[in-house]
Write a structure and sequence with these properties.
Blueprint lengths: L28 H11 L1 H22 L13 H12 L7 E7 L9 H14 L13 E4 L14 E8 L8 H15 L5 E5 L11 H18 L2 H26 L8 H29 L4 H28 L7 H21 L2 H9 L18 H4 L3 H11 L1 H17 L6 E2 L11 H13 L7 E6 L5 H10 L5 E4 L3 E2 L5 E8 L6 H19 L5 E4 L2 H35 L2 H27 L15 E2 L2 H29 L4 H29 L6 H33 L8 H6 L27
Parallel strand pairs: 5-11
Antiparallel strand pairs: 1-3, 1-4, 2-3, 6-9, 6-10, 7-9, 8-9
Helix pairs in contact: 1-9, 1-11, 2-7, 2-11, 4-5, 6-7, 6-8, 6-21, 7-8, 7-10, 8-9, 8-10, 8-21, 9-10, 9-11, 9-18, 9-20, 13-21, 14-19, 14-22, 16-17, 18-19, 18-20, 19-20, 19-22, 20-21, 20-22, 21-22
């Protein structure tokens, strides 16, 4: 069947005879590449081994370590941070808070307990913990029994231990050594000690969540393929792609700073798309084998059709996450770059190494069947009798009911996202297993809810030393302020800090209001008519600045990822209806995910299932990052389903029949891919930190909802209602866009190649 003329709505001629998928021979440059990979598989395998060896060598020579650095260009918080780094050299090292507590109802200032704590402090001040050329060390340890650090009820006290340097991941052992020394000294005396502060950040742990995700993927793949060999191929490809992406990430870390949270997102996305993309191609390969093609022809045709869809799908994901650069926050940009590396690496490997491996395996892909379970028949005739095929026919037959019901339900659930409050969830919302959480609770009990989130006002006096005092006088009696510290000047007296302790916890809305009041009223009034400049900083202020930055850049961010993916899909499917449907339904899926996230971690519904025990706001940087990931991954499922639907439509079926054939051919793969991706994301709910839990919950819910409800039900129902109008393309846009479609060009409908004889043990 030929393509329609420009500017028309494509329709399948009722006189055309449908050309079966295994009777089509792809042509074009991509098909030529796939045939080359299939006919010369060992060249491809050896080439990839060489590439990985080179990457390992580069990591060893020019690679770098991951390093956390969070900057907010142009913000008050960043200006305050830069000023402190330049003028308060003595405060450059990390601080570890040692929080001591007696048992409930008892006091710390008994002779035995005071002696134990004093012994611990003396030990920390000894040469055992002094800085050296190779390791960080302590320069000063405060007295926990000072009036300001000893609670009124006598049960809780704290001391600040000052390190000589900012604590990095490589310095973790030195921090742990300090903690171990204090514990073993004071605990025999019945004193509990916990730790927080900027020096207490446990390294990001990886492995357990990824392992659980892989285990779930193995189970799903076994049910999909019913053979161990077929199951192992997507798992192996995902691991190879993830290793390659990590090598590239550490090479990149040698030239720029990459944050420690980046590998978590690379793992989430890399594992998911690695398994999904290879699942899509392997399924098409087995279908072609079962329909009678030789192993080389099946591999080449699978690459030319499914592999082509993978390229478009990967491009949409990469575009989406790369769009994070428009937010203008360096750490967010690096997250996008790292995620894009993982996706693009997977696409390259899937469209070369995977094709070569499939060509080598042939019918061996069906070996090692699962006992007592009937083998899957992937022939076209058998696919039309599956539950997925029956579901597709049910949706198309009842589209007039299915579409409005699901659309209304989706909008209701998405509407709950309006309840989401963005902010900075403090350490009081972290799991109780973390010492920083337990220290937070003790400090809040002993010194007030706002003690854990002081608001530093950094004053560049510029010759007006009284400016800091005026700020202090205006702040100390302000509503919402528990206390204010007198100005602390640096040695030259050029910069001062006024610490403000709010009545409320760092994550509370009241603290947000206090920061706004300080910035808009109190501080400007105090420095009016003076050359002094003051900046309100701290954790709450920083997250407000991040939120302001995100909100100001959100229009261009959304315009980029929605606009570019709209154009890519319009080009791929030659239909603005399909591309617009993809954009709108993806937004719907994202808002449903945000709504569920807010209901759980902010409202507290089913909170215990996440391993958290206290609610809090959603971190301000989670929505744009999650939206970029969701937008890309949702497009994956749209591309997978629509590529098969369009392929069937182009080759002779009307829209409703094409929808039914497309779902029967690829629906099982989409369901399996969504279950795998959702499980990979859900496994990160078991992470020790709150932020990975938020990402895991949000992405798992949104992906499963998007694939199972939106792509498998809502979109097919809509296409059925639209009929041939689904393929509408304006003439001018059809002329402007390159003629690169989702389906490969084909040369007629030749007789399929004679299949190679099936080896013993095959299907």
């Amino acid at each position: 069947m030929t393509e329609p003329e420009h500017g028309t709505t494509p329709t399948a001629s009722p006189t055309d005879e449908r050309v079966a998928s295994h009777e089509r021979v792809a042509t074009g440059a991509l098909a030529g590449w796939m045939r080359s990979c299939a006919t010369h598989p060992w060249r491809v395998v050896v080439s990839w081994l060489g590439i990985i060896a080179v990457l390992i060598a580069l990591v060893a020579t020019v690679g770098g370590a991951l390093e956390d650095e969070f900057t907010i260009p142009g913000s008050d918080t960043q200006k305050a941070t830069d000023l402190l780094e330049a003028e308060f050299a003595s405060e450059q090292g990390g601080v570890l808070n040692l929080v001591f507590a007696a048992p409930e109802g008892e006091s710390l200032d008994t002779p035995v307990r005071k002696a134990a704590i004093a012994k611990a402090i003396t030990r920390l001040e000894s040469s055992e913990f002094k800085p050296s050329e190779d390791t960080v060390g302590l320069t000063e340890v405060a007295d926990p029994f000072d009036d300001e650090t000893f609670s009124d009820n006598g049960r809780i006290a704290y001391a600040q231990a000052q390190f000589d340097q900012v604590i990095e991941g490589k310095d973790r052992d030195a921090v742990v050594a300090v903690q171990d020394a204090v514990r073993e000294t004071v605990e025999p005396a019945g004193v509990t000690v916990e730790f927080n502060g900027d020096a207490e950040f446990p390294p990001v742990e990886q492995g357990a969540s990824e392992g659980l995700g892989l285990l779930a993927a193995i189970i799903v793949l076994l049910f999909v393929f019913r053979t161990f060999v077929a199951m192992l191929i997507p798992i192996a490809l995902a691991i190879v792609a993830l290793i390659t992406a990590f090598l590239l990430l550490f090479i990149l870390a040698g030239f720029t700073k990459i944050n420690t949270i980046t590998p978590i997102l690379v793992s989430m996305i890399g594992l998911g798309v690695g398994i999904d993309y290879s699942l899509f191609i392997v399924t098409r390969f087995r279908q072609l084998l079962h329909d009678g093609l030789s192993k080389q022809d099946a591999a080449a045709e699978a690459g030319a059709s499914a592999g082509r869809a993978v390229i478009f799908a990967g491009a949409t994901v990469a575009i989406s996450v790369a769009g994070l650069a428009f937010i203008g926050l360096d750490f967010v940009t690096k997250l996008g770059i790292g995620s894009a590396l993982g996706v693009l690496t997977t696409v390259l490997i899937a469209n070369s190494l995977l094709i070569a491996v499939l060509s080598l395996l042939g019918h061996k892909v069906d070996r090692l069947k699962i006992p007592f379970i009937r083998a899957v028949d992937d022939s076209e005739e058998a696919r039309d009798r599956t539950p997925i095929a029956r579901w597709g026919r049910f949706v198309t037959a009842n589209a007039k009911v299915v579409f409005p019901v699901l659309l209304i339900a989706g909008f209701i659930l998405a509407g709950t996202s309006a309840l989401v409050r963005l902010g900075a969830a403090d350490q009081g919302t972290q799991p109780l297993e973390q010492t920083s959480r337990r220290a937070y609770d003790l400090l809040a009990e002993g010194f007030g809810a706002g003690f854990n989130g002081p608001i530093p006002i950094v004053v560049d006096v510029n010759g007006d030393k009284e400016a800091a005092t005026r700020i202090y006088e205006r702040v100390k009696g302000l509503d919402g302020v528990a206390s204010a510290g007198e100005p602390q000047f640096n040695d030259p007296g050029t910069v001062a800090i006024v610490f403000v302790t709010p009545d409320s916890a760092p994550q509370d809305a009241a603290t947000d209001t206090l920061v706004d009041t300080l910035r808009s009223d109190v501080v400007p009034a105090a420095v009016a008519g003076s050359d002094a400049v003051a900046y309100v900083s701290g954790q709450t202020a920083a997250f407000k600045d991040i939120a302001d930055q995100i909100i100001s850049r959100m229009p261009i961010f959304l315009l980029f990822i929605i606009g570019v993916t709209f154009i890519v899909l319009a080009m791929a499917f030659r239909s603005i209806v399909v591309s617009a449907t993809a954009a709108v339904t993806t937004l719907l899926s994202a808002f449903m995910g945000f709504g569920v996230l807010g209901l759980v971690v902010q409202q507290g519904h089913l909170l215990g299932l996440t391993g958290l025990d206290k609610t809090g706001p959603i971190e301000t940087f989670v929505p744009p990052i999650a939206f970029a990931i969701l937008f890309g991954l949702s497009m994956d499922y749209m591309v997978f389903i629509m590529s098969r639907i369009r392929e069937e439509h182009v080759h002779g079926l009307d829209t409703r029949a094409a929808v039914e054939h497309g779902i029967s051919a690829i629906g099982r793969v989409v369901v399996a891919a969504a279950l795998i991706m959702g499980t990979v994301f859900a496994a990160f709910i078991l992470s020790a930190d709150r932020v990975p839990k938020e990402f895991g919950l949000l992405l798992a819910v949104a992906i499963l909802t998007d694939a199972l409800v939106v792509r498998m039900t809502l979109v097919p129902a809509f296409l059925t209602l639209m009929g041939e109008k689904s393929w509408y393309m304006p003439r001018w846009l059809d002329r402007v866009l390159p003629n690169l479609t989702i389906e490969a060009p084909h040369a007629g409908a030749p007789t399929p190649a004679t299949p190679a004889p099936e080896p013993a043990g095959g299907s």
